[in-house]
Amino acid sequence: MSLSLERDALRAIQNIVRREKGTPLERESVKELERLLATVAGGGAAPAGERNYSQHDATIVFADLRGFSAIASTYPAEVVLRILDRCLGVMADIIVRHFGTVDKFMGDAIMAVFHGHAGEPRDHARRALLCAVEMQLAMYELRRQHRDEGMPELYMGVGINSGSVMAGLVGSDAYRAYTVIGEEVNLASRIEALSLRGQVLMSEASYAHVADFVQAGEAMEVYVKGRAERMRVREVLGVPSLGKAVPRQDARKSPRVPVAFELEYWALEGKIVAPDAARGVVRDLGYQGMLIDISAALPLYSELKLAFELPGVGVRVRDVYARVVSVRPRESRWLAGLEFTSLAGGVEEEIRLCVQMLLQGDYAGAASR
């Protein structure tokens, strides 16, 4: 690409930005764009004395379709791909409408970046948050459409984080892409892993930019892979000034993760614990309960005492009490849903740690969501 063509391309891009946003690019953005065009023109190599990367503030959005793995293993390929194309296509359109960039598709997930500008230090977080709310609204409409068409319904979990990122071209002559990297990107991914179906979670860093713009839940402390201390996240409920609310329909109060570990349980008669323990396998674990696989049905609402070892945490949990809230047959066995009624000592925190680390893929033994 000749120098004159590079200048023509730069001028055309500036005109598009001015037309769409109503303001021209800032000086630093123009310089960054010049470097990028020079890199592309030179086949991927940065000009001598120049760099093809930058470091600046941005907000990262990760969104992941929930339940897609089960659909992919059940429905024909054409149905699966049609659903995926429809859902991710709608999400990509919403991201672009809010002046975000689709960084990449990762199977049934999407990563978007909202770059910051010196003149509008909080704008990137506001655009990202409004985008996430509208993504959940769009998923609500897609579920209604899927129900009408007799297609499976899907939900989405979303995580948001703001901070300093490194952006630039990475790769080789065979393949090169513009992307963002850094700890803030990783944190956005970890936050998304903790979100429930239909939920939007954001970090305190993002909340600091949008506190006067968003309706949010109380701060929650969570364990995040790679950090010794807990971090705080908030649930995004809506944007009141625009009349937009996240239509979250999941009644659960905590995430659940598929697992496979053994437990012992004893039936209670009044306050008397039966002398003999029965055994089962835990198939699903959350903050307030679990799903267990057992050989014989249990009476609904009966009380149990439990003992088990939390995978990866290395803690043997005893004196946990639970109530049977659901029972259903599965082949020659039974699945029983348990709700914890009493957790001794620091057991509740140990269970939360286990669930959050399993969701982030930190321990072996967690099945795909």
Fold topology:
Layout: H1 3-21, H2 27-41, E1 53-66, H3 68-72, H4 77-97, E2 101-106, E3 109-115, H5 123-148, E4 155-171, E5 176-181, H6 183-194, E6 200-203, H7 204-210, E7 215-216, E8 220-222, E9 231-239, E10 244-245, E11 256-269, E12 272-273, E13 278-286, E14 289-294, E15 303-310, E16 315-330, E17 333-343, H8 347-359
Parallel strand pairs: 4-6
Antiparallel strand pairs: 1-3, 1-4, 2-3, 4-5, 6-9, 7-9, 8-9, 9-10, 11-12, 11-13, 11-15, 13-14, 14-17, 15-16, 16-17
On the 0-100 scale, what is the average pLDDT?
A: 85
CATH architecture of the largest domain: 2-Layer Sandwich
Structural class: alpha+beta
For the largest beta-sheet, the strand count, sense and barrel status come to: 10 strands, mixed
Question: CATH homologous superfamily name of the largest domain?
Answer: Nucleotide cyclase, GGDEF domain
Silhouette: elongated
Radius of gyration, CA atoms, in whole angstroms? 24 Å
- How far the N terminus sits from the C terminus, by CA atoms, comes to 47 Å
Helical content band: 25-40%
Quick rundown:
By secondary structure, this protein is α+β, with helices and mostly antiparallel strands. Helices cover 32% and strands 37% of the residues.
Structure description:
The two termini are 47 Å apart. The strands form two sheets. Strands 1, 2, 3, 4, 5, 6, 7, 8, 9 and 10 form a ten-stranded mixed sheet that branches. The chain is elongated, with a radius of gyration of 24 Å. α1 crosses α2, α4 runs antiparallel to α5 and α5 packs across α7. With 369 residues, it is an alpha+beta fold. It has three domains: 40 residues, no CATH class; 192 residues, 2-Layer Sandwich (Alpha-Beta Plaits); 104 residues, Thrombin, subunit H.
